[in-house]
């Protein structure tokens, strides 16, 4: 994806739609900063060129090689922050596993059959119970309102 020399003053919000990009060029743009979540989900990104004034997202530890040339900084070979090569500031909770989520970013995914907050619930979500209670409450409230408001509709 070539966004070089597009007069970008900030990272466009639509950039997250290009999360499957492998190569991205942002050089020759008057970018001042890269917000920390700009490359969230960019797990396939292997080459990123940014203006010389900006560091590689995630820091130089997030990339295998960082080179500087005349017009920008080239960040190559996104590293997996979950492989133990770097210390994680927020380790994943029990019953979950670390997964990369972009340059220098991680996400914790619950291992099967765990789910919920901090992966503490075991089993599957009780869909039938939830749907039954929600359906019963909706039907009861609808009948109550229909019965109480019906006489007002006749007048």
Structural class: alpha+beta
Stretches with pLDDT under 50, minimum 5 residues? none
**Order of adjacent strands in the largest pleated sheet:** 1-2-4-3
Which radius of gyration do the C-alpha atoms yield?
25 Å
Helix coverage percent: 10-25%
Q: What is the residue-mean pLDDT, rounded to a whole number? A: 89
Distance between the termini: 65 Å
Percentage beta strand: 15-25%
Summarize the main sheet. 4 strands, mixed
Number of helices: 1
Beta-strand segment tally? 8
How would you describe this protein?
This protein is α+β, with helices and mostly antiparallel strands and 155 residues long. It has a domain at 15-78. Helix content is 18%, strand content 23%. It has one helix and eight strands; from the N terminus they run E-E-E-E-E-E-E-E-H. A four-stranded mixed beta sheet has the order 1-2-4-3, with no helix packed on it. A hairpin with a 5-residue loop joins strand 5 and strand 6. It is elongated. The chain starts with 22 loop residues before the first strand and ends with a helix.
């Amino acid at each position: 994806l070539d966004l070089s020399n597009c007069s970008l003053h900030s990272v466009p919000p639509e950039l997250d739609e290009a999360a499957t990009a492998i190569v991205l060029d942002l050089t020759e743009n008057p970018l001042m900063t890269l917000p920390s979540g700009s490359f969230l989900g960019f797990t396939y990104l292997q080459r990123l060129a940014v203006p010389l004034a900006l560091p590689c997202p995630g820091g130089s530890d997030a990339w295998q090689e960082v080179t500087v040339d005349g017009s920008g900084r080239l960040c190559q070979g996104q590293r997996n922050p979950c492989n133990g090569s770097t210390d994680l500031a927020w380790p994943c909770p029990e019953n979950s596993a670390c997964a990369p989520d972009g340059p220098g970013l991680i996400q914790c995914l619950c291992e099967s059959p765990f789910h919920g907050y901090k992966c503490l619930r075991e089993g599957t979500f009780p869909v039938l119970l939830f749907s039954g209670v929600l359906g019963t409450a909706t039907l009861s409230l609808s009948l109550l309102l229909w019965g109480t408001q019906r006489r007002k509709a006749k007048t």
